[in-house]
Specification:
It comes from Salinicola endophyticus. InterPro entries: DUF112_TM. This is Tripartite tricarboxylate transporter permease. Pfam families: TctA. By secondary structure, this protein is mostly helical. Helices cover about 75% and strands about 0% of the residues. It is built from 22 helices and 2 strands. Strands 1-2 form a two-stranded antiparallel sheet. Strand 1 and strand 2 form a beta hairpin. The N and C termini lie far apart (about 55 Å). The mean pLDDT is about 80.
Length: about 500
């Protein structure tokens, strides 16, 4: 009953005209960002964080808009997969396998409509799962002490690279870079300056919003300039939609299975949306066997991965909202937004900021309906925007990022700092070092240090407190498994995913 009460409270927040307007705006911009190959939801949310500050939005409105951008980007990734055979981001890769063959057979409109319905179903199932599971997990997390929280943060770092991660060492290296940056500033316990070099602006530490916008948005702009600026894409023609009720009911079991599996993949540490879409596609292929014609334009081959990756995106919000530990790159960026709004993520958020948390959850449900309504009739608009050369989009994105960062502190130092992070992000990406662990290290570093210190004070310096309870031992064991899985199981999964990628290239 409590859940229903809080959910109704959340709808009261989500259905306010201002929040509805920004949710709609977030859905539209998110779909557009998702449709642009290579940009992805994490970059999209990072680019739009400064916009939330520029507009002076209330915390719940800002989060609703950014969550809508996240959901929209997950929807939009399928457009370029189906029409161009280029996935908008990695989770949309599996959609190419049957989406593009459908488009080549003159069924592009049907493929886009089926993928929109499957995305809707996957996201809806996962949001219901979020509503049911998040309060339970939040209550359980209240039993965590400093030692358990420290083990949980270690677990978050250990599983960040994901089971399919290419190089766990690079992931750990990136996390270490983030943790090192997090130590910059005045130590609140001792008052000692750490790596400030007597620069006044560094006394309060590095602002992660500046780091995020620099690492994601500015580095992405540099890649755009290097690879894509000036090149437009061919205008794509879409056939008139001919989808009947039988077509929709035929994909229904697939979308339900995909949504449930995707949600589980999103909640589990180290799995993520890419693995979610891969598992749902391969499982559906096995279930249907000879009844399906996967790889040749089977609608269920479009529905399964879309339901899976959208389910995983909502599932990834569960650990972020309940434990304060992001389940994906995009939720790490959203977590940074929460912290910068002076909201402490974790189990207490469900009691201290109930209107905000439940407002975001209710907005996910409302946004899901908005996305379905936007994505079927307006898909032609997104396709036309997709064909606009990036040279016209680049100045707009740059302006939003720079104006937004300047509006936060009115400091030119922050702009220089953002550019420096952008260049660093560009170099790290060239070296194939992931950026998300850097952000996570920067975000979780202070909390990790605080809990470690607290545990040491309680135990009078006895390190064994870190593995003194059954819960902390369990978390350490999962962390060790998370470190070993990419080495043991990762090569097998990567081989299968590469085989799928090779099919896309054919």
């Amino acid at each position: 009953m409590d859940t229903l009460h809080y959910l109704s409270l959340g709808f009261g927040v989500a259905l306010q005209p201002e929040n509805l307007m920004f949710a709609l705006m977030g859905c539209f911009i998110g779909t557009l960002i998702g449709a642009l190959p290579g940009l992805g939801p994490a970059n999209g949310v990072a680019i739009l964080i400064p916009l939330a500050f520029t507009l002076g939005l209330k915390p719940e409105t800002a989060l609703i808009m950014l969550t809508a951008v996240y959901a929209g980007a997950m929807y939009g990734g399928r457009i370029s997969s189906i029409l161009l055979n280029i996935p908008g981001d990695e989770p949309a890769m599996m959609t190419c396998l049957d989406g593009y063959p459908m488009a080549r057979k003159g069924k592009a409109a049907e493929a886009l409509a089926i993928s929109a319905i499957a995305s809707f179903m996957g996201s809806l199932i996962a949001t219901v799962g979020l509503i049911l599971l998040a309060p339970l997990l939040a209550r359980f997390a209240l039993t965590f002490g400093p030692a358990e929280y420290f083990a949980l943060f270690v677990l978050a770092f250990a599983t960040l690279g994901g089971i399919t991660g290419k190089n766990p060492m690079k992931t750990l290296m990136a996390a270490a870079i983030g943790l090192i940056i997090a130590t910059v500033g005045i130590d609140l316990s001792t008052g000692t300056q750490r790596y400030t070099f007597n620069v006044l602006e560094l006394y309060e530490g590095v602002d992660f919003i500046i780091a995020i916008v620099g690492l994601f948005a500015v580095s992405e702009l540099l890649f755009f300039i290097e690879e894509k600026a000036g090149k437009g894409r061919e205008m794509i023609k879409i056939n008139p939609l001919k989808l009947n009720w039988r077509d929709i009911t035929s994909i229904f079991p697939t979308t339900v299975r995909g949504g449930v599996l995707g949600f589980i993949a999103g909640v589990l540490p180290g799995a993520g949306a890419s693995l979610g879409s891969f598992i749902t596609y391969t499982l559906e292929k096995k279930i249907l066997g000879k009844k399906g014609y996967f790889g040749e334009g089977d609608p269920r081959g479009v529905a399964a991965p879309e339901a899976g990756n959208n389910g995983a995106s909502s599932g990834a919000l569960v650990p972020m909202l309940t434990l304060g530990v992001p389940g994906s790159g995009t939720t790490a960026v959203l977590l940074a937004m929460l912290v910068s709004l002076n909201i402490t993520p974790g189990p207490l958020m469900f009691t201290q900021n109930a209107d905000l948390v439940w407002g975001v959850i209710a907005a996910l449900l409302v946004g899901n309906f908005m996305l379905l309504l936007l994505n079927i009739p307006l898909v032609g608009v997104f396709v036309k925007i997709l064909s606009v050369p990036p040279m016209y989009l680049l100045p707009i994105v740059t302006m939003v990022a720079f104006v937004g960062i300047y509006s936060i502190s009115h400091s030119t130092f922050d702009l220089y700092f953002m550019i420096a992070f952008g260049v660093a992000g560009y170099i790290l990406r060239k070296l194939e070092i992931p950026l998300v662990p850097v952000i996570l290290g920067l975000l979780l570093g202070p909390e990790m240090e605080k809990n470690l210190r607290h545990a040491m004070q309680i135990s009078d310096g006895d390190w064994s407190i870190l593995w003194s309870s059954g819960l902390s031992i369990g978390l350490w064991l999962v962390a060790i498994i998370g470190l070993l899985m990419p080495v043991i199981v990762g090569p097998i999964l990567r081989k299968r995913m590469q085989a799928a990628k090779a099919k896309i290239g054919d």
